[in-house]
Amino acid sequence: MPQVFAVEDPDDPRLEPYRAVRERDLVGRQGFFVAEGRVVLEKAIAADPAALVSALVAAHRLESLADVLAGLPDDTPVFAAGQAVMDKVVGFPIHRGVLAVGRRRLRDPADLLAGLPARALVVGLVGIANHDNMGGVFRNAAAFGADAVLLDDTCCDPLYRKAIRVSVGAALTTPFARAGSAGDLVAMLEVAGFETVALSPRGALELRDLHPGPRRAALFGAEGPGLPDDILTRTTSVRIAMAGGFDSLNVATTSGIVLHQLAFAERRVETRG
Predict the structure, then answer these.
(1) Which domains does the chain have, with CATH numbers?
(2) 222 - beta bridge partners?
(3) Cα(138)–Cα(158) distance, integer angstroms
(4) In this predicted model, what pLDDT tens digit does every residue of 168-206 receive, in sequence order?
């Protein structure tokens, strides 16, 4: 069980990583991330407890969080503060009363793909700049068993505090890596033997007619511009059939529909057989 340190002074230097959280969201944390809330902390501990540097909790929540905090390494400090002190340190009313700071783990995209099993599902993201959408896609990736997520270099940060929260901690548990340009990302998937489908309202094939193989990758682009034309021509372009008057969905919603289809396609074939 990690040691708990009671903190009464909002200027305590040990709380520096938690100071002015929203302002630091904007400027970045130089190799660290912030997890917020009980569920996200549980996911972070389950994924990599050694990555967590410390935790800051509201003192009145210590007892209810004892089982979660017990999962931290013994040398990870837990700071307990009164609600008023915690709010002042963080810079806003932190109703969840639970924060933790962790150290980022960088992955090589080629190594990540090489380590996947023979049957694997990968998500590729191009130009996703909205943190809500990023978190939503990661949540869907975890829900439907995606093995990894690759991001091009124009995507926003999956470990931005809001993205982690929207993902319900999935951004901490689903392996991901930056893969360079969109073209580089697709090339890596090709080398690793993945059949890549690219989602677009202009897709040549309807999703329901897709019969993917054992190594499947789904590419999603930003709302509005979508995926570049050269990526659509290089992959199997796929569309989702919709009622008249609509031709597109929110990218997070789209990812949920597509990943469900890809995750269970083989099971449906086996059932029919």
Answers:
(1) 4-103 (3.30.1330.30), 109-272 (3.40.1280.10)
(2) 226
(3) 8
(4) 999 999 999 999 999 999 999 999 999 999 999 888 999
